[in-house]
Amino acid sequence: MPEFMKFDHTRFFDLYRKEYGKLTQAKVSGVENLLIYIERDLEVNDARWAAYMMATVKHECADAFLPIDEFGKGAGKPYGKKVRAACADGKEYFNAYYGRGYVQLTWQNNYRKLSKALDLGDSLVCHPERAKEPEIAYNIMSYGMRKGSFTGKKLSDYIHGDVCDYKNARRIINKLDRWEVIKDYAEKFESFFTLSRIS
């Protein structure tokens, strides 16, 4: 039966600082939030999954560990244009569905799909900025990476049992773009999680 993972947060931060140096208070808060969400997530009970998720956030959010808007907000890209959204509240919205959150969710259909999957109704379609709320951003990342919502590839395709392919796990988000950097982050986060795990 799956069990929640628990970590010694002080130990985790000590290991992180030893590897990457001083953290700003904003980064401390961001990492702390992610640790709490991971500990509450019964579907994430492999430290390597947690490590790859943290590595993805470190890369996709420019080392901020906070949900962000895509740089340029989709300017010049098809998904950066405002499109109509009819919502259950009877109002009509015109939103641009550029990358937001921890994993840079894009396109209206993906906002709609994740909104439904997370029991948020049409909230993410009508109010796409909600994808940057930390807990929602985490749930988008966790569900999407576990279920293959972004590219059809999922965590269990690359990390299971004795298999741990951090290189090809990048396909979960974005083909093999910058896989070397993210693999290095993931290996370090795996060490941090392993050494700080208490249950």
Task: Characterise the protein shown here.
- With 199 residues, the chain is mainly alpha-helical.
- It has helices spanning 9-20, 25-40, 47-60, 108-117, 123-126, 134-147, 155-158, 171-174, 179-196, and strands at 68-69, 83-86, 92-95, 100-101, 159-160, 163-164.
- A two-stranded antiparallel ribbon has the order 1-4. Strands 2-3 form a two-stranded antiparallel ribbon. A two-stranded antiparallel sheet has the order 5-6.
- Helix 1 runs antiparallel to helix 9 (179-196) and helix 3 packs across helix 9 (179-196).
- It is globular.
- The model has no long low-confidence stretch (mean pLDDT 96).
Helix content: 40-55%
Our count of helices gives 9
How would you sum up the major sheet?
2 strands, antiparallel
Helix/strand structural class: mainly alpha
Q: How many structural units, i.e. domains?
A: 2
The spatial strand order of the largest sheet comes to: 1-4
Poorly predicted runs of 5 or more residues: none
What is the H-and-E element order?
Answer: HHHEEEEHHHHEEHH
How far apart lie the N and C ends? 14 Å
Overall number of strands:
6
Content of β-strand: 5-15%
